[in-house]
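#help-structures
NK: newbie question, is this the right format to request a structure? protein is Aldo/keto reductase
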Amino acid sequence: MGDVPVLSSPHGLSLPAVGLGTYKLRGAAGAEVIGAGLRAGYRLLDSAANYDNEGAVGRAVRHSAVPREEVVVTSKLPGRHHRYDDALAAVEESVYRSGLEYLDLYLVHWPNPRTDRYVEAWRALIEARERGLVRAIGVCNFLPEHLDRLTAETGVTPSVNQIELHPYFPQNEQRAYDADHGILTQSWSPLARARDLLDEPVLGGMAKELGVTVPRLVLRWHHQLGAIPLPKATAPERQAANLDVFGFELSDEEMARIASLARPEGRLADQDPAHYEEF
């Protein structure tokens, strides 16, 4: 398995092309799984305050033989802390819980448009970056109208937009918007419900033709879309396999076959950022 490529934004942020999702990886057992991911070659770790595992992520990084400056540690601001002062304190607490001197990337987890404090939260993240608590800032699940408003009211465009993205929900318009505005797109739930994907005849046939597994096939699809997938895996062999997606390439026809799986209502849990609220 070769080195993981890096994707860069015009804003100066560079990220590994695949990251490790850490949802539900908590405590000592979670820290060990994350540490195994670092040993496997992951250099981008995705966490959140609402995952309740910033401590486990930080412990894995601190106890790893990988130099700190080579690891991109991400966390996210929960909706209950969108008020400016609350948001700054929440970022501070994220850093303290991690046991690290700083976090590399911090994201507003959801816009919560009905609450309508996401611009206030974004101003707090800008301040946190200026204070050195975090190195780069971005958002999750923001639609074009949310992103337009952030830029218009603060003059600062997010470096990252992490969105639900998988073959059932490829987010063509959102990805195009992000690319046009120099925003790196990350994919959460990149394998959708993995069990469903494993049973897809289209994917199974393609994977057999290429001599790869279905998860590797789908993660390669993300890479060729220009998105950064964040698959979660606990077994060392699966962690390694999810990184090993850069030694083959999908043709335009193969990409189109995967695109044919898109569904009009492709979201896994009806979490539409236009109305969904997360706290």
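mod (FA): yep, format's fine, and the tokens are attached above. Residues 24 and 51 are 7 Å apart (CA to CA).
NK: thank you!
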